[in-house]
UniProtKB/TrEMBL annotation:
Occurrences of domain Sulfotransferase (ranges): 61-324
GO molecular function: sulfotransferase activity
Organism from which the protein derives: Nicotiana attenuata (Coyote tobacco)
Lineage: Eukaryota, Viridiplantae, Streptophyta, Embryophyta, Tracheophyta
Protein name, UniProt field: Sulfotransferase
Keyword Membrane among UniProt keywords: no
């Protein structure tokens, strides 16, 4: 773990003073409080980790970083990317080469702010990024503006894969996820949490601003940032995963390789693998199974009232107007 990097930037007292100057709101358990830093909301340990990462993380040219806001289909990508990168093209059916059999997807792509630089990381085996063999795989929920400069630098050839999703589905998925990891009884009311989401007050929110930052950068640097939509991946998994593999510099040699990766990473298989059904995710202490629900497209319409849908749709239209981005369900 790399939390000592923060000491070179500011002392604990200086950090406490810095945080005291940030807007703060009470949030549901297990977040408890969110702090607004340069327009985005974070748990306090995420702020500390992001600051430490900005100077302590040095990107390599062959690094791959998976970026997203929360609950946008990230777990699927956390399985797909390692499988593509580790695919044994000489024996694609060999089970010993399947990293998903013995690892939860979170373990295959460590998080910059949730694990590597996080002072609350529960995993005693946390990685030292400098000692990781190349190519290194990382993930982050940080907005583009808060990524370490070594990742964003034009001289860096590292790759960024961003995944997003229709916002109504994002909220509903986030709602169920937070309920599954919270010990609070009773659960907060959905309409109250929905109001906070619409106002952008949720971990790594506002959602729309997060998406737009990566979208705009992907238009400027398509060779560096691959922007994916969850709905397109569900509609055309073969075409989208083929595009992903080509972007990563690991194109499939034949249809069998593509089909094997899609089968290995299917939600149904991941949900039923023993490694994902029991125990806690080592970094945050969250039940491993909490990361797997139904992965349906359009699920937001089944859970939100007509008024809630119309409110969030209006925000989405206004936020994305003129951007060329459309997250409506395909």
């Amino acid at each position: 773990m790399a939390t000592s990097k923060l000491d070179a930037i500011m002392s604990e007292e200086e950090f406490a003073t810095f945080v005291d100057g940030l807007p703060r709101v009470k949030c549901r358990e297990p977040i408890n409080f969110c702090y607004q830093w340069d327009g985005y909301w974070y748990r306090i340990d995420f702020v500390k980790a992001a600051i430490a990462a900005q100077s302590g993380f040095l990107a390599r040219d062959d690094d791959v970083i998976l970026a997203s806001s929360m609950k946008t289909g990230t777990t699927w990508l956390k399985a797909l990317i390692p499988c593509i990168m580790a695919l044994n093209r000489d024996n694609i059916d060999h089970e010993e080469d399947d990293p998903l059999l013995t690892n939860h997807p979170n373990q295959l792509i460590p998080s910059i702010e949730l694990s590597i630089f996080n002072p609350k990381n529960l995993d005693s085996d946390a990685l030292n990024v400098d000692e990781m063999p190349s190519p290194r795989l990382f993930r982050t929920h940080l907005p583009y503006s808060k990524l370490p400069e070594s990742i964003k630098n034009d001289n860096s050839s590292c790759k960024l894969v961003y995944i997003t999703r229709e916002p109504k589905d994002v909220f509903v998925s986030l709602w169920h996820f937070m309920n599954s990891i919270s010990n609070a009884e009773p659960c907060p009311k959905m309409d109250e949490e929905f109001d906070s989401f619409c106002k952008g007050i949720h971990p790594f929110g506002p959602f729309h601003d997060h998406v737009l930052e990566y979208w705009n950068e992907s238009l400027k640097k398509p060779e560096k940032i691959l922007f994916l939509r969850y709905e397109e991946m569900k509609k055309d998994p073969k075409g989208q995963v083929k595009k992903l593999a080509e972007f990563l510099g690991r194109p499939f040699a034949n249809k069998e390789e593509l089909d094997n990766v899609l089968w290995r990473c299917s939600l149904e298989r991941l949900k039923n693998l023993q490694v994902n059904k029991n125990g806690l995710e080592p970094c945050l202490g969250i039940p491993k199974i909490a990361y797997f629900r139904n992965g349906l497209v359009g699920d937001g319409k089944n859970s939100l009232t007509k008024e809630m849908q119309e409110r969030l749709d209006k925000i989405t239209r206004e936020k994305f107007e003129g951007s060329g981005l459309d997250l409506q369900v395909i």
